[in-house]
Amino acid sequence: MNIKLNKEQKEASEILNNNLQIIACAGSGKTLVISLRIINLLKKGINPNEIVAFTFTEKAAAELKHRVFELAKNEPAITTIGLAEMYIGTIHSWCLTKLKDNAITYQKYEILDDIKLKLFVDRAYIKAGMKNLGMRCYIDTNIFINLMSLVRETQFKEGINLPENVEKSRIMYENYLEENNYLDFTMILTKFLEEIKNKSSRLYKYINNDIKYLIVDEYQDVNDIQETIINEIYKSDCNICVVGDDDQTIYHWRGSNIKNILNFSKNYKDVRSVTLDKNYRSSEAIVDVATRIIEEIKENRLAKKMISASHQEFEEADLIKNNFENQKEEVEYIVNTIKNVRGVEFLDKKGNDSRGLDYSDIVILLRTWNVADVFAEGLKNANIPYVVAGVTKLFEQDEIKASVNIFKYLSGQILKNELEESWLKLSEKIEINKLLQAIDYLDSYDDIQEDTWYEYLILQQVFRTYLNKLEVSEKTFSYLENEHGMEKGEIVFYNLGKFSQIIQDFETIHFRDNPIKKLDNFINFLHYTAADYYPEGWLNQNLVTPNAVTIMTIHQSKGLEYPVVFIPGMNRNYFPAKKPGGKNIWHFIDKDIIEKERYEGNEDDERRLFYVAITRAKKFLFITRSPKLTKNNLYNKESLFYSDLRKSEFIFQSTTDYFDRKHTLPKSEKKINNIILNFTLLESYFECPYKFKFDVLYGFNEPLSPRIGYGKSIHDSLMEIHKRSMENDIPEIKEMDEILDRHLSFPYAIESTKQTMKKKAREAIIKYYNNNRKDFNKIQYTEKDIELDFGNGIIINGRIDLIKKSQLNGKEKTYIIDFKSKFDPNKDKIDFKQLQIYAIGYKKLTNKMADFIQIYDFEKGEAEPKQLLVNELNEIEKEVISAATNIKNNKFEQKCNDKNCICQFH
Mind telling me which Gene3D superfamilies this protein's record contains (predicted)? Predict the structure, then answer.
């Protein structure tokens, strides 16, 4: 490998035997160093399954995975066999996977994200424990949920316990979740911690026997319970490497404890520390400004001095700070400067050809969202494409207003003509006769009564059927002007897909409600709650990067970099931000129990946030302010941080127009978007490329069904049987009922349906047991993770249900088996493609070729083996690469021949 490392990078990547603390300044190449350290561990002979690496986000995990896989390919001393067994991802994802794998009772548990958790608590707020604290349903729900997270994730002051009423609510809340087979994100960690502290548990044994090296990225953002988990793993004689920067601790309000990184060498033994102080991202000028800002922190800071090692050369007026009379002038300056720097010659990497800066190279960073609209409006008026990342503007879009009207019409809140108008205004290509057919379909629900069966009204079914009858497609909006650097039709369908997700979130909790009550509650949810939670759908897509200026908060920008950065609004009380008013968790828990100050933050925390904002910039940095006139004059004075900028000679006031700079054709930076797909998603693509786009990218959901859970209940039961068999504890036939009861979960069914499905599942499991008991001692793997790197940023992962050995004519053969609750012969080619991909994964895992693939059909209780051929695997590998490449490039022209497929309507 021909990789140039500086002294500190090389040292950090080669320390393998000591516990290691890597202090990584902004832009110092920490991902490369972590990757090389993993490579060096593999070269040393450490097995991939003995290495675990925690990242802060899934995006960071994807980047690290790709880097490791690419480095491993070019390292002769490393075989890529078994790399899939190395974990790289978030701590929550790892804890959940290992909890389910080793504490089998949690297999049937589902995770509630923030919005579904709020719906769940609101549905039975007394049972959840809210009323016990004097909290009001809907109004105080977010405070209650935050309080429940706080008291379970935070270490209390020594000798102090929770107040009795808070402890009672905690117990009620967790019991309510467990009764319904749910976990929230905090419970993933608390249940994991319970298991690894139990020395007789399978999870404890796994941690102590299998995990030898733990790497924790963004260590400065670790909270108390996460640190406890890390420490428990360390106690198993595991080598610990933490990577972070105390200067970039910006999530104190989530519980991040800066003491963890400050005191690491005291809390852990045999620690070596390396500081990566060379910034390869930012120019000398930007590094100077950032350093002068952060060095004002005199306490609770590790000693370090960041040095610029970037190829970006400073030119006068690269850094500007300007003071304006009013906000209108400030916005006009930013708009004009964006126009002027677009096309300025820029060099992404030393040795590359230069290019002209374009809109996607520019970001406007905000301390809070409440000023976003004024800058967005300025860009819009100047016809500059822009993206406001993460802002909840979904319900301001006309297509969402029209979608909401579907359900308002169903409930009798609006008249037919209002529904018609809301849809006809979207596009002149919407046909009135199709619209009337769609409305006629809604009219078929006019007989809903109080005692109507709950399955009669499935909201997702209503929405999907309405759109199908309307026959709208991307082409319906193709004549309209594109927005945000994207086609208007795609934006509309991303947003409609997001509305489908809203319905799914609601019905996950309220599916079995009485139809009238469900409809009323859904409309109330849309009106009072949903608008504050959901961003526009197209903002969440990761495949196409619009050529547009980005407006985002500084918190959102962590880990990102831009050639041009604007930081506007540098006024007192805005940045540093004043503490928010109103009711909060501290009204319900005494600050003496928990370090309240750590959660609320102080000036140093705000200074760290400003430092993060500055260090996103590669070359250009514009910091501006103007007095915001209010009745109480809270925001009319300049920020303390703005004053601190005067300490650097590199940043000054200027009204330059950059016409003297060399300009060339604007061109966005060419980036390889990493893509991680699982086998199920690929199966969907092979079935129909457009359906993949509709369901996976746009995000449309299939309607829920009372029968959901049948296949998974059988699958989870078999997993327990297979796992125990691999541990020489083959269950007896009399245990089948007990095993099935442990894994049964039919969340949307009534009792009679549950009993019918339970009986059917029992018959399937008994039949499987009787037919396959003789082979239980031949199981090689069950629920085996597979990960395939196809290069060019493409990774495919998944889980193989079962791999077993069996004798055929005196020779041992390997069978890869996938379980289906109902086998569709019309899809057998696609199903076998999935198994062929599994076979490639098995070969990458073991360096051996499987002999047969097999689909076991529970409906019939039988399996048909199919022989594996090398040429078939070569062909499927080409198909996978082609499919992933098309997905990355947003190419979905191909459609299927199924007359009922969604592609027939588009």
Answer: 1.10.10.160, P-loop containing nucleotide triphosphate hydrolases, PCRA, domain 4
